[in-house]
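Worked example

This section walks through a single chain of length 304. The input is the sequence exactly as stored; nothing has been trimmed or padded.
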Amino acid sequence: MSLLRVEHLSKKFGNSSVVDDLSLHVKAGECLGMIGPNGAGKTTTIRMCLGLVAPDAGRIEAFGLPIPRQVRDAKNRIGVVTQLDSLDPDFSCAENLRVYGSYFGLPKETIEARIPRLLEFSALQAKAHAKPSELSGGMKRRLSLARALINDPDLLLLDEPTTGLDPQARHLMWERLQQLLQQGKAILLTTHFMDEAERLCDRLLVMDNGRSIAEGTPRGLIAEHLESDVVEVYGEGARAAADRHGHLAQRVEHSGETVFFYLCEPRPMLQALAEQDGLRTLHRPANLEDLFLKLTGRQIRDDA
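Given that input, the structure is written out below as tokens.
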């Protein structure tokens, strides 16, 4: 059974269609990732799932409850981490958890029992009495996740939860999210980190201009839409190499001084490039970043 189900969801702001006929579902123990350029409609979708924005058309159900009509009941089983931290600066880490738990009407003894476990889960035991201003960015994000878990939710809605974190903090966050999935919780995740999407997500929904343009497992989408190998050529001589050897590739793309050759059989290309002095090359398997760029383009998008 799907804990969250969205069917034919649409939303316009003025004349701009932000979400356009979008459908998705998330089951217990599953992570569904939404990826797409800025303005693709990811955050608006999450806000509609939380009843914060009313859809123009379509249906949302969480735990079988219609959203937004019964959103208050549904929110008792939902945990949320937004893009921007909303921690109370006047409260310590433990107090942030305590006060947030009171919003759900949880018994005091239940909240007090969960606080030390959540501080340990977020590796913040030593910071129980510290205020958010005393925490690093990574610590604040971990505290936000701990706070989202105070009501022991079955469904987590995470909007770019690791943005701004250093590699160590990101890996710790990934480890914690994988533990939650193993406990049977469902996660709807937006992210701009393709390695994060591949590591955490069972399925991916690729969005652009408010629509779903591809959906499937990370490896399945790569196999469906991309050649198996990529050879990157950098710097001086790259464009000349593209003119000379482009016929050996199924697809060639340019970005600045880098040329990307997409190939199903890389050996002829690698042999040809090896005969050209002074080239810097990288041979690698195709990945989610290649998928993202092929489906949504390489141009920079403004926030929408």
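What to look for: The mean pLDDT is 94.
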